[in-house]
Design goal:
Helices cover 40% and strands 15% of the residues. By secondary structure, it is of the alpha/beta class. Strands 1-6-5-2 form a four-stranded parallel beta sheet, sandwiched between helices. Strand 5, helix 9 and strand 6 form a beta-alpha-beta unit. The radius of gyration is 20 Å and the shape is globular.
Length: 245
Amino acid sequence: MHYNKEKTNFNLTKLTILAKDIVELILPSTCLICQNELTRQEKFCCSLCFNDLQFTHFEKFNEPTPMDQLFWGRSQIHSTFALLDYEKGKSTQVLLHELKYNNNPALGQFLGELIAKKLKNTAILQGIDALVPVPIHHRKRFTRGYNQSEEIAKGISKSSLIPIQTKFIAKSSHVGSQTKRGRFLRWDNVSDNFSLSKNKPSTLQHIAIIDDVVTTGATIEAMVASIHKTFPNLRITIISLAITK
């Protein structure tokens, strides 16, 4: 019997598309923000809501951004970037809540790819040897099922081809939610909360720490301090999905 591999693959592709269309008909995808039904070309949010997102446009700044200024006098950081402004009640909050609490790692990867596209023609990603997601404690990872910063890093890595390094630094204790603490209480709560691997890969000269949202900057400040205590010459860039406005 003659086996036509190309015809079989074509038929399987048609069946896959048909099955997806049936699923979409029964359970249509809806916009995470406005709940309207999405078209086949739209992912996670509709075009209207996507265009209404609070983008920082930091990639277009020729002067220091508010995120750069946040760390002045606090940490030795090479450069920073955040994709979105975060304000309570706005669409960015909806996306962050979905990413952190509604078991949607694919959303993190999608937003990570968007970050990489925004930075494609900038100098921010140039020379970075590895992406280092802000770690979460293993208990929180077990409850959530994934590390949201790692999912964002996967999306950035997919588009930029920069590898991800998840073994470089770890969360050594579980401190609970930081959302209601001020900058100094946050710093006190996380200052001794990170542990580094004993040996830094020799190829790492410049890393990008990947976070979901920067608020007071205390977590990043503590993480950078821990890294520079052991590796003082390592250059560090901060890339976040969002920053509080």
